[in-house]
Amino acid sequence: MKQPVRGLAAALNSGGKFKFKAPEVVVDHLVIGAGVVGLAIAQRLCDSFPSKSTYVVERHARAGEETSSRNSEVIHSGIYYPADSLKTRLCLRGRDLMYQRCRALDIPHRKTGKLVVAKDNQRPYIENLHMKALRSQWPPYSNAIDGSPVLPTRLISGDESRAMEPHLSQDISAALWCPETGIVDSHLFMESLEHEISESEAGNLAYATRVVRLDPYRSSKEMSVAERGWVVQTVTGNDGGSGTESDTILARTVFNASGLSGPFILNSLLPPERRIPMYYARGSYASYQGPGVSGISHLIYPCPDTGPNAHAFASLGTHLTLDLNGKIKFGPDIEFLSPPSSEDSEENMDYWTRHLIPDDSRLEKMHLAVKQYLPEVVADGLRPDYVGIRPKLVPAGAGFQDFVFRIDYPCQFGGGGTVGEGPMISLLGIESPGLTSCLAIAEYIVNGLLGSTNPAQ
User: Fold this and answer.
1) What is the structure's pLDDT at 239?
2) Is-contact 174 154, C-beta < 8 A?
3) Nearest Cα residue to 446 out of 52, 92, 57
4) 345-372 pLDDT, tens per residue?
5) What's the rounded Cα separation, in Å, for the pair 301 and 320?
6) 26 strand-pairing partners
7) For the chain, which has fewer Cβ within 10 Å, the N-terminal or C-terminal residue?
8) d(CA 350, CA 343)
9) 225 pLDDT band (50/70/90 cuts)?
């Protein structure tokens, strides 16, 4: 009998290797993680508060080395998730912000449009998506155009879909055309955010710098004024050994955007019974050269396996995407991983990195999935391309899980101040549509949660 997938509820510095140290420097904003979401938050902070210091620390040598650089690079239209969810609202707003930024800065992108294709028994699914699109409202902060739909879609017949993409199966009886979907060069997009942060008055980026301990700040005699915030220890370099000297920062506000490690910082403050497990979903991508795809110019998505309800899917299915050079790839599929032992040990926190090497073990299943809508695709044309890991807050089959933005204060963990002073905002479970939503997430966090009012609530 197959064992259920187990989450990892590890905690930062659980072994106690790094002892408390008094802070050596004070910063206004500390962003942990330079993936696309962390960079977007830092860029908005630098733009909104130019005289306040914003530091970004990233454990890898470059930005976006984890989920941000191992995805489909799709600008999603915002169609799949519950209408009142953060995923829908932030995807709709983020889509428009991303297109605006790409046009303004000449970041390579293309509005390709997408076909969600359906067989006879799947037609109710795309019909429901279409009805949801018709009812969709412009999200907060949007510059709504009177009378224009925020989510334009069109139901078309199987013949109409084959007129757009002739290689589609004759079994496809209908499709949903989503013209707002596109693709983007995510690396150049992240570079544009990095550039603005580094060129700002008070923004700094520190790479190869790992957070190793976080504590609520308690007032000290050395401080001339009462400070509120978090004491964050970092180590620069790749060894992280016991002999490595750490630097210590007092951060007045912390933004935990560490992606695949997101819960572990928070877990270091929580008792074991309240710790948050992370579930890791491996997604493989395959490149393709062969028959059955010539002339394809739109993204093609199958209907997802929804499980108990229309929003309970863990993946959008093995879809066809294009890159900006016209290269075709299929993926991602989904494979939940389990930690190597039953212990929520700190040593297991990066076990998922051992699953990043692509291989051909998934190609047969991927081919079977693709043949359902592109029957001329041959198995011999598929080659392992790359692998991404999605940060999940719930296991397979658990149903829909929204983005989570959690706010904690030092006073809740023995630190100084009151609720409202020295926040740490943790962004958890930021998987798809995280890339599309990143600028809207930054807007929501900085203009909403960090501000005095939050119109998205």
Assistant:
1) 53
2) no
3) 52
4) 888 899 999 999 999 999 999 999 999 9
5) 6
6) 250
7) N
8) 14
9) low
